[in-house]
Amino acid sequence: IIILNLIIIISLFFILSCKKQVPLISGTPSDEKEEYVVLIDNCEDNDDVNFWNGIWYTNYDNFGDTIIYPKLTEKFYMTRGGSPESPGYCARIVGYIGPQQGVRPGPEPGQEIPDDYYYAFGGVTINLSPRSSLKPYDLSKYTGIRFNCKLGTVKIKEDKPLNDSIKVLLRRKRTDDTTGAEFEVTIGSLPFNEWTPIKVKFDDFHQVTTFPEKQRPLKPFDDIEAIYIYPNTDTKDMNFDISIDDVGLYYIKDKI
User: Does the reported pTM lie above 0.85?
Assistant: First the structure.
């Protein structure tokens, strides 16, 4: 009886511990360095919760012409056909970025009002913890972010071109005198209809200057709450079709 109870307890522990645990670190050897990856999500469980128990969701401006699928009001759904690394599912966003570029319509034509908050944007957000807690993570020990990306050719507006570049943004913990997602990097000239491995070093991120009065030191990246992946919102009035898979953090260390 004691042995049977022990088997039951071990089995229950195993079942419960399998729910949304971060996969084991994988290493890629080289001559002098070793690279290690910690996955945030590979989308293979086909839901909106990542391995860190954060969620995927879309966000976009709510005053302009931007269109995005999945919609913000919907639960984020994965799409069949992932990268060669995990071919089952991926996160895909399709849409159109509107023309708004920091100018709010005025009462009459020609009386537009400059407004830094009035610009078109849209993309997918990957929270690193549940919304209920939304604690920031110290990522300063990592070298950067890695993921696989594929651009598709679906157009929401047939008369508009497709965007071939993306932005990766880090949302840091907001305070009274700072904004959140002001650290970004742009990746351009990506190919269409093929998966491209992407690595972005934290050293390559820069701070946008939209709100210079709210700037803070670039490092350390010790208060990260979420990762945003957008089409390049510097180029407006364009379609986008972006698939993302195998999002993770990587770090490199010398071989022992």
Answer: no
